[in-house]
C-alpha cells in the first residue's frame, strides 16, 4: 500500500512538473514565392513551391497546420529583389530566390474559411503606404478571420523597393524607426480611439444603424503623417492585430520594447540570443513599464525530421541534391550588404565587408559578432555550403526526439518562447512537423493538447495570452489610445514634415 501511495505521489509530481514547462509556440514560416529560405527545392519532385499561385496550395496548407494545432502561419513578404550579389538582380530572378513574389494578404480569407483556430501573421511595411489604408485592410482581415490576424511590422530597407515606388534612396535606418513609431500611434488611434464600443446600436424603427456621435474623427498632425478621418471600419474582434516585429539593432530594440507583442530574432546559437532577448525585456520594463514575459520571442528553426535519425540524415542528403548554392548566396548578400562573389573563398567575413548602407543589421551582426563561442568562422566557402537550406538559421536533422531535444535546448538556453518553422520542401517539412514532431512535443508537455470538437474559438492574441485577452494588454502602449481614455496629441511643431515619406 505504501509503495502504491509513493508511486501515485511521484506520478503527481511528474505531472505537476510537466504542466509547469514552458509551452512552445510554433508558427509555420512561409512566403508567397518559389524559393523562401531554401532556394532550389522547386526542382525537387516532392516540393510544391511552384504551385503557390494556385489558391489550392494555401487552402491545403491551412488545413494541415490546423490539424497540427500550429499557432499561426507567418507570411514573410518583400517589396524588391536582391541585387547585391554580383551587383545584379539576374541571379535572384534566375534562381527564384524570393522572386517572383505575390501579395500574401490575398489567400488569407480562403484559409480562414477552412480553419477555426489557425492564426495568420502578415508582413506589411510602414514605409510604403499611408496608415489609413493599412488600418482598413487589417481591420477587414481581423473581421474575416474572426480575430486571428497578426501584423509583422517591418520598416523597408531595399533600394530596389524604394525605386519601385519612385524614391531614389531608402530612408535612413534610425529615421525609419522614428517614422514607424509615429505610424503605429496613428493606427492605434484608428483601431482603438475612433469607435466607441457602443457605436453600433441598430434601431430599425428610427432608420439608424450606428451613432455618429460615438465615432470620433482622428485629427493627427505629426512629423511624418497627417490625417483627419473617422476609421471607416467598425471595431474588429481584436481591434489591433497581434503585433510581431523583427529587429534587434538599437533603434529596432527600442521600437520592439514599445510596440511588439511577438519578436522574431536571429542568431547562430541560443547563447548568442539570450543577451539580446534580455536587453529587450529590460527595455520593456524600464521604458514602458511592461511585463517582460508578455513579449514572446521566436527564432527561425528548420527541422528535417525522420522516424529515426538515420532516416532524417537520408532526407537531408536528398534535399542537398536540389539546393541552389547561388540562390543561397543571393539571399545572404542581400541581407548583409556583402557582395560575397567578390571575396576570396576562405577569407573570414567581417562587418567591414558590408559596403551597402541598407541591410538587415541584426542578420549581419549574427554573422560577425565577437564573443559568440558557437558562431562558426564564416567564409564564402562555408556560406556556399550552408546558405541554401534554412537561410543560414539553425537546422536540426534527426528523429522527432532528437529535434525536440534541440528545440528544448534553444528554448531554455535562449529564453525563447517559440519558433518560426522554416520549410525545406513544402508541404513535406510541415507534414513531418505535424505528424512526427508535434506528437513528441505533446508527450513532453511542451505543446498544447489538440482542440476538442465544439471548443470555443479564440483570437490569435488569446491563443498566446489566454482566453479573455482579445485586445491589447493594459500595459501595452496601444491601450493608452482606447476610446475612453484617448486625448489627441498636440500638432507637431519643428522641421517640415516628411512629405512623400508615406
From TrEMBL:
<dbReference type="GO" id="GO:0016705">
    <property type="term" value="F:oxidoreductase activity, acting on paired donors, with incorporation or reduction of molecular oxygen"/>
</dbReference>
<dbReference type="InterPro" id="IPR011251">
    <property type="entry name" value="Luciferase-like_dom"/>
</dbReference>
<dbReference type="GO" id="GO:0004497">
    <property type="term" value="F:monooxygenase activity"/>
</dbReference>
<comment type="similarity">
    <text>Belongs to the NtaA/SnaA/DszA monooxygenase family.</text>
</comment>
<dbReference type="InterPro" id="IPR036661">
    <property type="entry name" value="Luciferase-like_sf"/>
</dbReference>
<feature type="domain" description="Luciferase-like">
    <location>
        <begin position="42"/>
        <end position="414"/>
    </location>
</feature>
<dbReference type="InterPro" id="IPR016215">
    <property type="entry name" value="NTA_MOA"/>
</dbReference>
<dbReference type="InterPro" id="IPR051260">
    <property type="entry name" value="Diverse_substr_monoxygenases"/>
</dbReference>
<dbReference type="Pfam" id="PF00296">
    <property type="entry name" value="Bac_luciferase"/>
</dbReference>
<protein>
    <submittedName>
        <fullName>Luciferase-like domain-containing protein</fullName>
    </submittedName>
</protein>
Amino acid at each position: 500500500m505504501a509503495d502504491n501511495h509513493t508511486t501515485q505521489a511521484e506520478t503527481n509530481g511528474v505531472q505537476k512538473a510537466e504542466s509547469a514547462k514552458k509551452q512552445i509556440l510554433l508558427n509555420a514560416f512561409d512566403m508567397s514565392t518559389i524559393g523562401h529560405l531554401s532556394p532550389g527545392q522547386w526542382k525537387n519532385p516532392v516540393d510544391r513551391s511552384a504551385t503557390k499561385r494556385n489558391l489550392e496550395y494555401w487552402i491545403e496548407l491551412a488545413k494541415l497546420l490546423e490539424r497540427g494545432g500550429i499557432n499561426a502561419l507567418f507570411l514573410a513578404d518583400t517589396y524588391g529583389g536582391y541585387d547585391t550579389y554580383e551587383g545584379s538582380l539576374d541571379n535572384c530572378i534566375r534562381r527564384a530566390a524570393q522572386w517572383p513574389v505575390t501579395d500574401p494578404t490575398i489567400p488569407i480569407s480562403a484559409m480562414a474559411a477552412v480553419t477555426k483556430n489557425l492564426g495568420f501573421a502578415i508582413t506589411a511595411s510602414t514605409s510604403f503606404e499611408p496608415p489609413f489604408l493599412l488600418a482598413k485592410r487589417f481591420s477587414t482581415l481581423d473581421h474575416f478571420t474572426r480575430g486571428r490576424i497578426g501584423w509583422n511590422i517591418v520598416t523597408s530597407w531595399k533600394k530596389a523597393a524604394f525605386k519601385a515606388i519612385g524614391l531614389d534612396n531608402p530612408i535612413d535606418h534610425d529615421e525609419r524607426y522614428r517614422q514607424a513609431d509615429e505610424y503605429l500611434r496613428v493606427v492605434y488611434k484608428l483601431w482603438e480611439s475612433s469607435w466607441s464600443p457602443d457605436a453600433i446600436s441598430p434601431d430599425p424603427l428610427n432608420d439608424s444603424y450606428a451613432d455618429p456621435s460615438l465615432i470620433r474623427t482622428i485629427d493627427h498632425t505629426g512629423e511624418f503623417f497627417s490625417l483627419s478621418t473617422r476609421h471607416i471600419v467598425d471595431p474588429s474582434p481584436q481591434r489591433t492585430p497581434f503585433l510581431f516585429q523583427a529587429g534587434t539593432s538599437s533603434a529596432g530594440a527600442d521600437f520592439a520594447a514599445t510596440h511588439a507583442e511577438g519578436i522574431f530574432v536571429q542568431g547562430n546559437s541560443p547563447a548568442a540570443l539570450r543577451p539580446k532577448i534580455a536587453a529587450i525585456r529590460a527595455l520593456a520594463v524600464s521604458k514602458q513599464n511592461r511585463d517582460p514575459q508578455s513579449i514572446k520571442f521566436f527564432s527561425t528553426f528548420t527541422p528535417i525530421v525522420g522516424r529515426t535519425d538515420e532516416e532524417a540524415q537520408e532526407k537531408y542528403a536528398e534535399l542537398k541534391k536540389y539546393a541552389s548554392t547561388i540562390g543561397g548566396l543571393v539571399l545572404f548578400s542581400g541581407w548583409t550588404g556583402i557582395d560575397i562573389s567578390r571575396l576570396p573563398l576562405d577569407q573570414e567575413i567581417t562587418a567591414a565587408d558590408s559596403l551597402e548602407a541598407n541591410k538587415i543589421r541584426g542578420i549581419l551582426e549574427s554573422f560577425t559578432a565577437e564573443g559568440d563561442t558557437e558562431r562558426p568562422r564564416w567564409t564564402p566557402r562555408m556560406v556556399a555550403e550552408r546558405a541554401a537550406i534554412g537561410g543560414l538559421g539553425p537546422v536540426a536533422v534527426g528523429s522527432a526526439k532528437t529535434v525536440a531535444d534541440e528545440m528544448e535546448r534553444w528554448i531554455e538556453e535562449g529564453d525563447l518562447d517559440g519558433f518560426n518553422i522554416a520549410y525545406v520542401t513544402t508541404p513535406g517539412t510541415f507534414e513531418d512537423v505535424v505528424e512526427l514532431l508535434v506528437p513528441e512535443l505533446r508527450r513532453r508537455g511542451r505543446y498544447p493538447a489538440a482542440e476538442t470538437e465544439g471548443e470555443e474559438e479564440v483570437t490569435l492574441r488569446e491563443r498566446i495570452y489566454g482566453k479573455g485577452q482579445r485586445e491589447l494588454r493594459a500595459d501595452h502602449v496601444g491601450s493608452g489610445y482606447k476610446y475612453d481614455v484617448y486625448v489627441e496629441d498636440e500638432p507637431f511643431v519643428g522641421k517640415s514634415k516628411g512629405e512623400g515619406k508615406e
